[in-house]
Specification:
The complex is a heterodimer. Chain A is mostly helical. Chain A is 69% helix and 0% strand. The chains are: A mainly alpha, B mainly alpha. The interface between A and B is large, with 48 and 42 residues.
């Protein structure tokens, strides 16, 4: 188990390097340089550009430095080196701010969870909590009342939730709740009240809720047919004890293991929802960066998101090892 | 099979036995006919297939079906509500001329949705075809021969799975949009390439798994015993037996691609909106979402119509996919 985990952790390094390399290469295909990309501002003259390029190391070769003594003295490896130390470089558009500051620096006097990333993280957590607390009981009940009208309705709702993309749901809810019923504001400016968070969190978490419902139901059905459940029944144990002690304990293992990836998916996948609701998280910042062609910001955010997803996938394997002793990984 | 064997046994010479065998035997039905009848009994799948056929029809005959030219600017008729609304928030009344109303420039929303179906259908089917051809061939080779090809494929999958795919599409579309590749087919070609680059790996891995289990089966051994070559075994024995899994995978790839296009369109990274009436692809549902978001109060139908269309198509593909899975792999049925 330990060697497997160590190998998995080390495997993350080439994966992340490749993600960085692909992003870096593609971003350098984009037309223009960092200094001439802002048409609204005065263009920088040639000599200043040269000085700026020197200052930020943009005069270095892109990938491998052939002439200099150190082959790693290139733009790509400098970027990677800085990124490892937590420096994602300056934003091309928000003058004087670094990418990591835009993402992680809270407003003055506030805690870290008031940063852009903190907002997205809290929204993702809220969505996951809603999804799990509604999805798990629904899945259990659907399995226990298999082939009843309750089961069919739960399956129907979860099919809709899995197939209908969240932004479509967001459009429907915004038009109904804000446009017709005036229950919420279309552009929410004040995010201090918990009520304001509810609608975006519900929209964001609906797909995950549907997935958790289906997973719980299927996993329960599988467990219900196991021999140890029959043994427990034969011993004369009460229904509640069998359900909680014998079935749930095993049925919830797959559900627990997907929580990590689900949270990562909710944080990295929330950018459309954040944009639609005007939510001040890192996702909306990402969409703005796409619109502005703020390449360093796009690249930095992508790397952070990729790291999150890789880490989340790692938790699956770790959790399986802990929760299910039957699974032995090489 | 057993009934045909009975009719051929020499012991069944007496007339009555032959008669019984005749009654018992039925024309042998292939797996595909069985699957087809199972699919036809699945109401949700049939409904989904009909909706998909309807949207394909709409996509092909868009110029004949659209009541207006989707690019025609009707000045002074902007933000008209749909025909059943008599007094909208902008104080205008809907007319039967514009069934779903108009957008800010006075363009007919219904006609634009009809033309948008073209983009969604093309984005759904074309990359999926590329993905299946590439994924199936590489997956078969990798699973059948194993070795270093197989290792390389598995490592590639690890990387692709680690890259958040939507972020990859966004980066590709942002970076290469201005290049010649990004302008070909109004930007759709680049989207096809990006979708194919990410998704072939999943299909390859799926097929590889199938091949790994199938190549140990007795019929492969039998085929090899009578002298069949590797290519023949792969094409005649392994491919037909993996076809069910491949078809089901296709049914779920298509809606994924359609959603991706809609999201990218909403971010302004999908189809380049066209102003040339001779273009085949004029607008997409995703682009309509982007155009409509500022008008959410004035004319929600600019948003609602493409949103409903996306939801309907995606839901239909999912129903069809579920139905196909149940029909093609009866073991999965509960």
């Amino acid at each position: 188990m330990t060697t497997y985990l160590i190998r998995r952790i080390f495997w993350m390094i080439p994966v992340l390097l490749l993600v960085a390399l692909i992003t870096f290469t593609l971003m350098h295909q984009a037309p223009g340089g960092p200094w001439d990309r802002d048409p609204s501002r005065r263009q920088v003259d040639a000599s200043t550009q040269e000085a700026l390029n020197k200052k930020f190391g943009l005069d270095k070769p892109l990938f491998v430095n052939i002439e200099g003594g150190n082959p790693l003295d290139s733009q790509f490896f400098t970027y990677v080196g800085n990124a490892i130390q937590g420096d994602l470089g300056p934003s091309y558009r928000q003058r004087g701010r670094d990418v990591q500051d835009i993402l992680f620096e809270p407003p003055k006097g506030k805690a870290i969870w008031d940063s852009r990333f903190g907002y997205s993280m809290r929204l993702g957590l809220l969505a996951l909590i809603l999804a799990a607390f509604l999805g798990i009981p629904l899945g259990i009940l659907a399995a226990l009342r298999r082939n009843t009208i309750f089961d069919y309705s739960a399956l129907f709702v979860s099919t809709i939730g899995i197939s209908v993309p969240s932004f479509v749901l967001a459009i429907f809810l915004i038009i109904i709740l804000a446009g017709q019923l005036n229950l919420i504001k279309i552009i929410q400016r004040d995010w201090s009240s918990p009520g304001a968070w509810l609608v975006p969190a519900v929209v964001l978490g609906f797909g995950t809720f549907a997935y958790i419902t289906r997973l719980t139901r299927n996993s329960m059905l599988e467990v219900m047919g196991q021999d140890y459940v029959r043994t427990a029944k034969a011993k004369g144990l009460g229904g509640r004890v069998i359900i909680t002690r014998h079935m749930l304990r095993n049925a919830l293992i797959p559900v627990m293991t997907i929580m990590g990836p689900a949270l990562a998916g909710l944080i990295t996948g929330s950018f459309i929802i954040e944009t639609m609701f005007g939510f001040p998280g890192s996702g909306r910042e990402y969409v703005t960066a796409i619109g502005n062609r703020d390449y360093s910001m796009i690249m930095g955010t992508t790397l952070i998101y990729a790291l999150l997803i890789v880490l989340a996938n790692l938790t699956v394997d770790i959790m399986y090892g802990f929760l299910d002793p039957r699974i032995k990984v090489k | 099979m057993t009934t045909t064997a009975q009719t051929q046994t020499p012991s069944a010479k007496s007339a009555s036995a032959a008669e019984t065998a005749k009654v018992l035997s039925r024309p042998s039905r292939s797996f595909w006919r069985d699957a087809w009848s199972r699919l036809l009994h699945n109401k949700a799948a049939v409904a989904g297939a009909l909706v998909i056929l309807f949207f394909m029809f709409v996509a092909i005959f868009a110029p004949l079906l659209a009541p207006h030219n989707p690019l025609e600017l009707n000045s002074g008729k902007g933000f008209l509500p749909p025909m059943w609304v008599e007094n909208s928030s902008t104080g205008k009344a809907g007319t039967p001329e514009f069934i779903l109303g108009t957008d800010n420039l006075g363009r007919d929303v219904l006609s634009r949705v009809i033309y948008g179906a073209r983009v969604s259908m093309v984005v759904g089917f074309i990359p999926t075809l590329i993905i299946v051809v590439v994924g199936v061939s590489l997956g078969m080779i990798s699973g059948y021969f194993g070795g270093s090809t197989d290792n390389l494929l598995m490592r590639l999958t690890d990387i692709v799975y680690a890259f958040p795919d939507l972020l990859f599409f966004i980066i590709v579309m942002t970076a290469l949009r201005a290049t010649a590749l990004g302008q070909f087919l109004n930007g759709l070609f680049l989207l096809f390439v990006a979708l194919a680059l990410v998704n072939w790996v999943g299909v390859a891995r799926l097929v590889r798994g199938q091949v790994l289990s199938l190549k140990e089966k007795d019929f492969v051994l039998a085929s090899r015993a009578v002298g069949a070559k590797d290519t023949r075994i792969m094409i005649r024995h392994i491919l037909p037996n993996s076809l069910g899994v491949i078809i089901v995978a296709m049914a779920f790839l298509i809606p994924g691609a359609i959603i991706t296009e809609a999201i990218l369109g909403y971010l302004g990274l999908g189809l380049r909106p066209s102003t040339d009436p001779t273009d085949i692809f004029i607008t997409s549902w995703g682009s309509m979402l982007l155009e409509g978001q500022t008008a959410i109060n004035n004319q929600p139908w600019i948003l609602l119509a493409p949103a409903i269309a996306v939801a309907l198509v995606v839901l239909s593909f999912n129903f069809l996919g579920d139905g196909l899975r149940d029909a093609l792999d009866p073991r999965l049925r509960e």
